[in-house]
Amino acid sequence: EAEVAQSPRYKITEKSQAVAFWCDPISGHATLYWYRQILGQGPELLVQFQDESVVDDSQLPKDRFSAERLKGVDSTLKIQPAELGDSAMYLCASSLELGVGAKNIQYFGAGTRLSVL
Amino acid sequence: KQEVTQIPAALSVPEGENLVLNCSFTDSAIYNLQWFRQDPGKGLTSLLLIQSSQREQTSGRLNASLDKSSGRSTLYIAASQPGDSATYLCAVRGLGGNKLVFGAGTILRVKS
Predict the structure, then answer these.
(1) CB-nearest partner of A99 from B41, B98, B103
(2) Quick one: pLDDT band at residue B96, thresholds 50, 70, 90?
(3) pLDDT at A102
(4) Of B30, B22, B23, which is closest to residue B68 (Cα–Cα)?
(5) Model confidence at A101: pLDDT above 70
(6) Which of B4, B89, B98 sits opposite A95 (nearest CB)?
(7) Contacts with A112 from chain B: Cβ below 8 Å
(8) Cβ-Cβ contacts under 8 Å, B57 against chain A
(9) Mean pLDDT of chain B
(10) Phi–psi pair at B34, nearest 5 degrees
């Protein structure tokens, strides 16, 4: 069964360092999402792509976070510089297409757990 | 702004009990509601999806209901097992697009 792949699974970094996460969506899925889940809370959407274009990045802290999906397939989320408050699980999800409907059910990866020391 | 609340925050039950998890949302203009399971340190697994026009969905020992007008959903787990221990999250999708708004989850522990 096709899955959303994320790496690394775990990342420990010191504050002020740069860190990057990678996501490979299910083949053929045009829409890709990055969520941040702080311990004890539900996931919160950071950024949403349709192919290589950003559809929604209203919750992305743009002073330190950036996301790209250059060829409309895999995606990278970067934090520079990392802060203590960035410690969280970063989840990637993908769906077949944008818009409401059965084809936009989101499938989640296993996530990257980030610890900032 | 849509807000999703889940009660209780944590629940511990003996094996074999039937249990109910609750989810409420502030804006009834939703397209659908979804229940997820999350094991410690893992990603999310979709359990049930209820369209706004539906009242309930069933999968095995799980039954989810939706009362859109009152902004409530329940997840019923029958004959609970230790393997059901996990965090259960509900999420709603608004009418305008794909964005999912999640609750904080209910941590379930089923004791053997």
Answers:
(1) B98
(2) confident
(3) 61
(4) B30
(5) no
(6) B98
(7) none
(8) none
(9) 94
(10) -130, 140
Structure-token pair, residue B103: 């609750």
**Residue B108 contacts residue B89 (beta carbons within 8 Å):** no
User: Using one digit for the tens of pLDDT, what is the confidence trace for A64-73?
Assistant: 999 999 888 9
Residues A91-102, mean pLDDT to the nearest whole number? 78
**Identity of the residue in B42, B95, B104 whose CB atom sits nearest the CB atom of A41:** B104
DSSP letter assigned to residue B30: E
Interface probe with B: pick from A32, A56, A94, A105, most Cβ of B within 10 Å: A105
For B40-67, the pLDDT digits (tens) are: 888 899 999 998 999 999 999 999 999 9
Cβ contacts of A45 on chain B, cutoff 8 Å: 99-100
First to last CA, chain B: 41
What is the per-residue DSSP string for chain A?
A: ----EEE-SEEEE-TT--EEEEEEPPTT--EEEEEEE-TTS--EEEEEEETTEEEE-TTS-TTTEEEE-TTSSSEEEEESS--GGG-EEEEEEEESSSSSSGGG--EE---EEEEE-
- Gap between the Cα atoms of A104 and A107, Å rounded: 9
Say which DSSP state B16 is in.
T
Strand, helix or coil for residue B32: strand
